[in-house]
Amino acid sequence: MLTAESSSTSRSLLDGLRLQREEDWRRFVTIYSPMLASWCFHKGLRDHDAVEVIQQVYSNVFSHLDDFDHHSPGTTFRGWLYTITENVVTEFYRQQNRQEELTPQAANAIHAPVSVEEDQADRAGLIRRALQLLEAEEELPKGPREAFLAHFFEHKTHAEIAEETGLSVGAVRNRINRAATKLKQILAPEFPHLASKGGS
Fold it and tell me: Domains in the chain, start-ordered, CATH in brackets?
């Protein structure tokens, strides 16, 4: 069983944002911006309007970060961000007096919930971008990243990955554990119980 509990000295991305660390705000923008842009486009915004809305979302996150309680049952950072984005988009259209320009379908899209498929794609995108960022910052070698992706996205067992890479099952498990631990530090409020799906 793979666990990803962070030590008392490790800090999550959320901790860094609350401490206003520039490095962590840069990480936040890198990891979450594509998802925010996707939400904006689904709500009918054009490119330049989406940029404006996303900047306002960042401002609201900065101002209200202490309001987010990841200990509340069923609460995710992604869901909290979606609510902020929805509110900013609604206000954007109100200020621009553009509600009358929207088709009924577009108006409904502003408040439409994220589908199961879109939610799964959002989660996968966050993990992939976080892994890429960790590799780019040389905090996570290619081996652990690829082992994690094979296990969680290609649904390969530890034994299958071991056979493909020539490593022992224990070494594969350690690589996945290393990647999961790093991800937990960045995405703790998003995936508080990141763990192996089981199987060797």
Answer: 12-114 (1.10.1740.10), 124-193 (1.10.10.10)
